[in-house]
Amino acid sequence: MVIFFKFDSKWGIIMQIVHEKDQEDKDGVKYMVRGPNIDWGTITLKPGQKKSAHFHEILAETFYVTEGIITFILENQNIDIQAGSAIRLEKIETHGLENRTVEPAKLIFIKEQYLPQDKVNC
């Protein structure tokens, strides 16, 4: 849900203000902005919760961990990323997420374009 947006007749929407608490929660995933030029949101993982492996054929994706420690499950390795750290994955890098701790963990994800069809489940 967009709380506020500013529209310009020449440029279209030029500003949006949203609040995380107003966004739909899809099993821990909340999209803050979906298009037209960027796709980003938050993921909250409960202890033991996982997100399945997938990759993107077109988009790179950046993650910034804001709370806890999240294990990134990549093709050949698992990498623990702690709060305050970021990881960038280029297209075709298979990745899944897991919270292997006893505390909730949270991150921000940013896809450089809005292409919701660019997700290939493994």
Please explain how this structure is put together:
This protein has a single domain, classed as Jelly Rolls, CATH 2.60.120.10. It has no helices and twelve strands. The two termini are about 30 Å apart. The model has no long low-confidence stretch (mean pLDDT about 90).
End-to-end span in angstroms? 30 Å
Give the percentage of residues in beta strands.
Answer: over 45%
CATH architecture: Sandwich
What is the count of structural domains?
1
Task: Give me the count of strands.
Answer: 12
Key descriptive features of the protein:
Jelly Rolls; 56% strand; mainly beta; five-stranded antiparallel β-sheet; 0% helix; 122 residues
Q: Could you write a compact summary of the structure shown?
A:
The protein has 122 residues and is mostly beta strands. It has strands at 2-8, 12-18, 29-34, 39-45, 50-55, 61-67, 69-74, 78-82, 86-89, 95-98, 105-111, 120-121. Helices cover 0% and strands 56% of the residues.
Summarize the helices and strands and which ones pair or pack.
Elements: E1 2-8, E2 12-18, E3 29-34, E4 39-45, E5 50-55, E6 61-67, E7 69-74, E8 78-82, E9 86-89, E10 95-98, E11 105-111, E12 120-121
Antiparallel strand pairs: 1-2, 3-4, 4-11, 5-10, 5-12, 6-9, 6-11, 7-8, 7-10
